[in-house]
Amino acid sequence: MPISIYSHASGAQLEYQTFGTGNQTLICFHGFGENTDSFACLEEHLPNHTLVSIRLFYHGGSRRSPYAPGRLRTPEWKELFADFLSELQIDRFSLLAYSMGGRFALATLSSFVSRVEQVILVAADGLVKRFSYQLATAPLICRLFRYWMSHPTSFFWMMNRLEATGILNPSLFKFARTQLQSATHRTLVYHTWTAFKYFGMSQKELLQLIHSQSLPITFIFGTKDRIIAPQAHHRFLAQIPQNHTHILPYGHHKLVQNATPLIQDLLHHDHNAPHHLPSGD
């Protein structure tokens, strides 16, 4: 399907792509550095759904208003997305998000909870605070972070030292090496990490929603994932019913593709029915 652009009166715009022609709407948010076609693999498995895949800000044609403040906050997103839903004549919808897209799904859920039918979060960012993320965006460190993104030689030297001492997980170093080789990706990391720091939904609000609403919210993780590790979410997951969580034997990359049968099952069947959950330990 061709790429479309929605333009808002504020000057903001959203790049999006639709897949399928079903009468149910599934709005999808991709991960860092990905495209709207990240969810194209689901089209043939979800014949009852129309997938609306939205590109995150700072990716491709999606951009915030030129008058927007540095940090993205939920009210800004709510105003833009309300008009987007109206433009596409979408009333009720489900949400599917992967990695960084989890922050957009949580902000959307917070703003339009009465219109959301189901939420599936795959290795979602924004559920718990990550030390590296909080450190890089702290006021005293943010200028140094910006310097490192502009001077990668010193950044990778520092990363090498951290890996050698065992402080940095080798998988994280490999991810950083892969994602930060180009100046474009380094700029993208800086803008998204700093702009999205407070974007999403608080964990307290999310837990209250899970326990007070009949709205199905499912969390999918990979046992081999070192980016959004399930182990880092144990305290959070211990506070929700077990049948909300699925831990699959995969890594971070292509987790959506690997979880396709489960996503299909969740959207087509009774999500409250008991499931066998593989151990994440």
From TrEMBL:
It holds the Pfam family Abhydrolase_1. Residues 25-255 form the AB hydrolase-1 domain. Coiled coil: none annotated. SUPFAM superfamilies: alpha/beta-Hydrolases. This is Pimeloyl-ACP methyl ester carboxylesterase. It comes from Reichenbachiella agariperforans.
